[in-house]
Amino acid sequence: MSISDNESMISPEGHRSGFACFVGRPNAGKSTLTNALVGSKVAITSDKPQTTRHAIRGIVHRDDAQLVIVDTPGLHRPRTLLGQRLNDVVRETWAEVDVIGLCVPANEKVGPGDKFIANELSKVAKRTPVIGVVTKTDLAKPEQVAEQLVALQDVMEFAELVPVSAVDGFQVNTLADLFVARLPEGPQLYPGGELTDEPEATLVAELIREAALDGVRDELPHSIAVAVEEMGPREGRDDLVDIYAFLYVERSSQKGIVLGHHGERLKKVGAEARRHIEALLGSKVYLNLHIKVAKDWQRDPKQLRRLGF
Ligand SMILES: Nc1nc2c(ncn2[C@@H]2O[C@H](COP(=O)(O)OP(=O)(O)OP(=O)(O)O)[C@@H](O)[C@H]2O)c(=O)[nH]1
Ligand SMILES: [Mg+2]
């Protein structure tokens, strides 16, 4: 076998690889779309704004390409230090990828938030192609989708515009094709079958946070953070993983809400999270979940650092 044959095994002729990121205002459907593209839940989702708090990589494996999707936090007007940090993550991410997808929901008018982001992206677009992605088409009438595509043409010059639905799968593969077409030729970046490079403990903490977000309102979703303190197989058992995690809130009044009457709410959150964690780890899980007050952590650099921001 010649050297060139050998090389072509590592990186077959025409094989592409690289990074695409989703940006958009909170709740635009970026994480749900990331999961739909990857075909597995790598990012948590919720109807609360600012669910995503770091750049999450999801990997799409195809015969012709390896596409790494980077899901980012929703870009927003920051009111806390955490908010500023999240926005920084978005800008750092879009500066590094091969192609950007700007997500705007089909069922909401193009607003100042979308225009603000588009305006910033216009500066990046000279270097990096930006694809306009109209999300959640299943929630809009076809006329509304068409109107949204037209409205988006006014906010910036896109390399492409595509309507998709992560829920019914409409054009999800088309979007993958559009991304892949803009990746450079190159070999696989991740081993076959790897869907994300998120550490297991992070995925677990996120699943707990997702369960905790369900049913809370107003400021509380923003105040919740979760950290896994300890995680490992129970001694002498290969079918049971022990997980000790802290659920942080910012004020003691919030602690009561998360706990619920006689701790009922927290129990439900734990049970729901455990179901998802067991599916993720493929084993039984004992989850020990404790609430802690970390006063105003969203505004405190020291506490933010401790929580990984
Ligand atoms: N019907 C429908 N709902 C969707 C679709 N995509 C997302 N959603 C819903 O929209 C809400 C927000 O979705 P996310 O994927 O968490 O949004 P996001 O843009 O990642 O939000 P942040 O992380 O806060 O920036 C959730 O309730 C999703 O279930 C879709 O294609 N169709
Ligand atoms: Mg998200």
TrEMBL record:
Q: Residues in domain Era-type G?
A: 16-185
InterPro entries from the UniProt entry: G_ERA_dom, GTP-bd, GTPase_Era-like, KH_dom-like_a/b, KH_dom_type_2, KH_sf_prok-type, P-loop_NTPase, Small_GTP-bd
Region: G4, residue numbers:
135-138
Can you name the source organism? Herbihabitans rhizosphaerae
Q: How does it assemble?
A: Monomer.
Which segments carry the region annotation G1? 24-31
**Name of the molecule in the record:** GTPase Era
Question: In which domain of life is the source organism classified?
Answer: Bacteria
- SUPFAM superfamilies recorded: P-loop containing nucleoside triphosphate hydrolases, Prokaryotic type KH domain (KH-domain type II)
> Which positions, given as ranges, span the membrane?
none
Locate the KH type-2 domain: which residues?
216-295
Q: What job does this protein perform?
A: An essential GTPase that binds both GDP and GTP, with rapid nucleotide exchange. Plays a role in 16S rRNA processing and 30S ribosomal subunit biogenesis and possibly also in cell cycle regulation and energy metabolism.
